[in-house]
Amino acid sequence: MPFDVEAQVYPWQEQVWNTLTERFPKLGHGLLFYGKKGCGKEAFTQKFLAWVLCQNRHENNQPCGECGSCLWLKADTHPNYVHITTDDENKKQNAKIKIEKIRDLQPFVQQTGDGWRVIVIEPAEALNIASSNALLKTLEEPGENIVIILLADHYLKLPATIRSRLQHFAMDRISPAQASAYLQQHLPDAGTTQQQLLLNLSNQMPLQALEVAQSAWLPQRQDFVQDWKKLVIDKNMPIQTATKWNKILSFSDFSQMFEYLLSDLICVKLNQTVKNIDINCEELAEQYSLEQLFNLYQDFQKTKQYLAQNVQSNLVLDELCIKLMNVS
Predict the structure, then answer these.
(1) Is 205 contained in some domain?
(2) For position 3, what pLDDT does the model report?
(3) Is position 2 within any domain?
(4) Would you report the helix, strand and coil content of the chain in percent, each value rounded to 5?
């Protein structure tokens, strides 16, 4: 996480910001910032660590941006800031933070000297049992003037022993009015329906909604639904269909689109509200039983693991389209 000089506190985070800055330094040394992807917890963390390390904080509770500490952060060379994450060469979905990285923190944690020191660990879910136990010792015996911040999408995935030693702050408590106002500011041409669609496809997280709005897969959904109908109704050309979509979208983009649409078919079967409110999925849902749809979802999760084993995406899509077609 190289320091971002543009990092900001979003409107839905202002209460947490005020709580943290008003209580400091009477906070515990271990903090957990958690929330769904797209809530802005990373930006909040960078703003907060800049404030903690700043040597000349403004009266309005903002880092000055000009002192030696702020300039070190901008240059990504601050001696009192350590960022821990998974190895750069191992960014796979289930990558873990190795115990060595946590053990190597000990000299930094125990050192004495002027100024505060900050450690950021993310994603905290990537801590394995060994590295969690090593971190536990650090949390139990911290040095002076140290703040340890963990970032997590799902804090319940952290060991209870770690959670119990941290103060928890939710970063994704966003009201519909706040989400709508943010999208209106950044997507002024989007109408109410388009805003709702984008929020549906982003777990109601406005920053993620902006990414969805720019995604390659969003305008392709209707075309894919038509191809999907031809597959299952006409029983025709699965390999050609797979080849077409392998060229149009990266597998990552295709995966997001397909999972949202498949989930909507399941919602139709269960009489629940769909997320793709601009697409009629009922005719397609009629072609499958609920059990078949759940099996398709489960099988697709397994096929995504094949890609981590260097299986080519075109083979994965070939198999998927054949499965979509072959239903009784």
Answers:
(1) yes
(2) 58
(3) no
(4) 55, 10, 40
Give the per-residue pLDDT at 87. 74
85 and 58 in a common domain:
yes
Q: What is the CATH number of the domain that holds 26?
A: 3.40.50.300
Q: Are residues 261 and 124 in the same domain?
A: no
Q: For residues 223 and 204, state if they share a domain.
A: no
In the prediction, which pLDDT does 7 show? 77
> How confident is the model at residue 211, as a pLDDT?
95
Percent of the chain with pLDDT over 90: 69
Range of the structural domain that residue 283 is part of: 218-325
The answer to whether position 103 is within a domain reads yes
Question: How buried is residue 271: exposed, middle or buried, by Cβ count under 10 Å (0-12/13-18/19+)?
Answer: exposed
SS (H, E, C) 205-217: CHHHHHHHHCCCC
Same domain, 45 and 164: yes
Q: How far is CA 323 from CA 27, 188, 288, in A?
A: 54, 41, 12
The structural domain count of the chain equals 3
Distance, C-alpha 106 to centroid of its chain? 29
User: So what's the pLDDT on residue 2?
Assistant: 54
**CB within 8 A of 301, min separation 6: which ones?**
none
pLDDT at position 313 over 90: no
Report the 10 Å Cβ neighbour count for 58: 11
Instruction: List, for residues 239-268, the tens digit of each pLDDT value.
Output: 999 999 999 999 999 999 999 999 999 999
In contact, 62 and 51? CB cutoff 8 Å: yes
Strand order in the sheet with 167-170: 81-84, 117-121, 146-152, 30-34, 167-170
Both structure tokens of 178 = 């706040």
Helices (H) then strands (E): counts for the chain: 16, 5
Q: Choose the weakest-confidence range: 55-59, 208-212, 220-224.
A: 55-59
Q: Identify the residue with better confidence: 113 or 29.
A: 29
Which of the listed residues 195, 213, 231 is the one where a domain comes to its end? Answer: 213
161 and 223 assigned to the same domain: no
Eight-state DSSP code of residue 34: E
Which letter does DSSP use for residue 230 in this model?
A: I
- Kindly state whether residue 101 falls inside one of the protein's structural domains: yes
On whether both 165 and 246 belong to a single domain, the answer is: no
